[in-house]
């Protein structure tokens, strides 16, 4: 049995994840060193734990026997690299979880759709009568799920979490898609892609998107695949009849579902493919798919004011998410599609949006990287606030049009997070 008793463990990053690590290590009777790269700490740590704030001190780090690194701190940080160079193991909370967990785990990563698939999968398993815990990159830190009764644990995992994970055994795993994101943290796209693909390392069942080469591994099993392309193996989509198919036969009518758009057809397929690996019945998965209403700030209808559909997709914090929203929703719009986009692009190459922009009738941009997005479309309209963007969209819109807030960017240049951005959008629409 693995033990951390009296081991000197450094915890770097004391946000929600770091706090869960400290709580876990206290229960394991470890000797804890706590670090945070921020100048001062806003959280209260348990008695006896002193945090060292500011730039990391490599000499102090090198006193540890093990380092548990928050996903918010880059592995490339010089002090971390120095610790690695002298043989100190650096892991994340997910790797720590992996070493102590005994419950079957299903895991999801990808640039877009992770949270939707994670929550839908959990609902599918619950509908089938299973006891399910959910966490990781969404909601509860993974370590907080240990020692709770459960049939299955469902984890959403980010590329940052996967970088420091090496032994996570999974009943089933998927990489939903891979598109430019976090290019401010990675040397290039290939490095980001490889971080995502680490999820398959110890997965019993690998669920693969057969339409996205960047999300695939060599020699994958097509019976465990999903996509919009026609296929006689795995999940597919019949766009004429709006049916999700399984092994070439109709499996679910998308017209019966609360979720809409082709991107959600993919999300349902991925969740169902993962769920089937647990041995649950298809009827429960189909029922859950029909009842699932989606997540806040993800292609969420906030109003039909002025007979215009106002859609909050504030969670679209990268280019791929915005492309998926435009492609998925365009066919539902009888009139113009008006897009509000912009924010902090995290070093992304916005030229990837240019072909999709042909499906957008009016482009309104804002934020730090708004000018880069504006350059993709003639007659685009730059504004200085989200309230101004909504007012401008209202002047441009008519009955039958759709206004889509899908920023393709992070929110931190103007907002606390994407949730606040979505709330400001909804309030501005309500104020019209």
Average predicted confidence as pLDDT? 95
Overall form:
globular
CATH homologous superfamily descriptor of the largest domain: Mur-like, catalytic domain
How many beta strands in the DSSP annotation?
Answer: 20
By DSSP (H or I, 4+ residues per run), the number of helices equals 13
- The side-by-side strand order for the widest beta sheet comes to 7-8-6-9-10-11
CATH class of the largest domain: Alpha Beta
Main sheet overview? 6 strands, parallel
Strand proportion = 15-25%
What is the second-level CATH architecture of the largest domain?
3-Layer(aba) Sandwich
Radius of gyration: 22 Å
Helix share of residues? 25-40%
Instruction: Point out poorly predicted stretches.
Output: none
Number of domains: 3
Distance between the termini: 62 Å
Annotated CATH topology of the largest domain = UDP-N-acetylmuramoyl-L-alanine:D-glutamate ligase
Secondary structure blueprint with pairings:
Blueprint: E1 8-12, H1 16-27, E2 31-36, E3 51-53, H2 58-61, E4 66-69, H3 78-85, E5 89-91, H4 93-100, E6 105-109, H5 114-127, E7 132-136, E8 152-156, H6 159-163, E9 170-175, H7 189-197, E10 203-209, E11 225-226, E12 235-238, E13 243-246, E14 249-253, H8 262-276, H9 282-291, E15 300-303, E16 309-312, H10 319-329, E17 337-341, E18 362-365, H11 370-374, E19 381-382, H12 386-396, E20 402-405, H13 418-430
Parallel strand pairs: 1-2, 1-4, 2-3, 4-5, 6-8, 6-9, 7-8, 9-10, 10-11, 16-20, 17-18, 17-20, 18-19
Antiparallel strand pairs: 12-13, 13-14, 15-16
In words, what does this structure look like?
The structure is a single chain. The chain is of the alpha/beta class and 432 residues long. The chain has three domains: 8-91, Rossmann fold (3-Layer(aba) Sandwich), CATH 3.40.50; 96-291, Mur-like, catalytic domain (UDP-N-acetylmuramoyl-L-alanine:D-glutamate ligase, 3-Layer(aba) Sandwich), CATH 3.40.1190.10; 300-430, Mur ligase, C-terminal domain (Protein-Tyrosine Phosphatase, Chain A, Alpha-Beta Complex), CATH 3.90.190. The protein has 13 helices and 20 strands. Strands 7-8-6-9-10-11 form a six-stranded parallel beta sheet. A six-stranded mixed beta sheet has the order 15-16-20-17-18-19. The chain has a five-stranded parallel beta sheet with strand order 3-2-1-4-5, with helices on both faces. Helix 5 packs across helix 8 (262-276) and helix 5 (114-127) crosses helix 9. The longest helix is centred in the middle third of the chain and has 15 residues, at 262-276. It is globular, with a radius of gyration of 22 Å. The mean pLDDT is 95.
């Amino acid at each position: 049995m693995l033990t951390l008793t009296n081991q000197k463990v450094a915890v770097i990053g004391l946000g929600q994840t770091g706090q869960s690590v400290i709580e876990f290590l206290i229960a394991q009777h470890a000797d804890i060193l706590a670090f945070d790269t921020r100048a001062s700490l806003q959280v209260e740590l348990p008695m006896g734990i002193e945090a060292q704030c500011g730039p990391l001190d490599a000499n102090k780090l090198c006193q540890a026997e093990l380092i548990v690194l928050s996903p918010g701190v880059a592995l490339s940080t010089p002090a971390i690299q120095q610790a690695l160079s002298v043989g100190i193991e650096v892991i994340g909370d997910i790797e720590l979880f992996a070493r102590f967990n005994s419950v079957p785990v299903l895991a999801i990563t990808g640039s877009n759709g992770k949270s939707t698939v994670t929550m839908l999968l959990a609902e599918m398993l619950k509908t089938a009568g299973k006891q399910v815990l959910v966490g990781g990159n969404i909601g509860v830190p993974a370590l907080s799920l240990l020692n709770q009764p459960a049939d299955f644990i469902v984890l959403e995992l980010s590329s940052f979490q996967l970088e420091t994970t090496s032994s996570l055994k999974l009943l089933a795993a998927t990489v939903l898609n891979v598109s430019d994101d976090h290019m401010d943290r990675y040397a290039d796209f290939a490095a980001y892609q490889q971080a995502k693909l680490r999820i398959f390392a110890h997965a019993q069942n690998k669920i693969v998107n057969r339409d996205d080469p960047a999300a695939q591994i060599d020699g994958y099993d097509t019976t465990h695949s999903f996509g919009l392309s026609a296929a006689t193996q795995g999940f597919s989509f019949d766009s004429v009849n709006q049916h999700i198919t399984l092994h070439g036969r109709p499996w679910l009518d998308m017209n019966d579902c609360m979720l809409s758009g082709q991107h959600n057809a993919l999300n349902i397929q991925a969740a169902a493919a993962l769920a089937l690996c647990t041995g649950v019945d298809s009827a429960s998965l189909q029922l859950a798919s029909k009842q699932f209403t989606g997540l806040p700030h993800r292609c969420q209808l906030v109003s039909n004011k002025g007979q215009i559909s106002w859609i909050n997709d504030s969670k679209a914090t990268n280019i791929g998410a915005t492309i998926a929203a435009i492609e998925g929703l365009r066919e539902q719009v009888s009139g113009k599609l008006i897009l509000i986009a912009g924010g902090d692009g995290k070093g992304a190459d916005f030229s990837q949006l240019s072909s999709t922009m042909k499906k957008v009738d009016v482009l309104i941009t804002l934020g730090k990287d708004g000018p880069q997005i504006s350059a993709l479309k003639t007659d685009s309209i730059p504004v200085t606030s989200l309230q101004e963007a909504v007012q401008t969209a209202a002047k441009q819109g008519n009955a039958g049009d759709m206004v889509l807030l899908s920023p393709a960017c992070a929110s931190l240049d103007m907002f606390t997070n994407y949730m606040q951005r979505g709330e400001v959008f909804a309030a501005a629409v309500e104020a019209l």
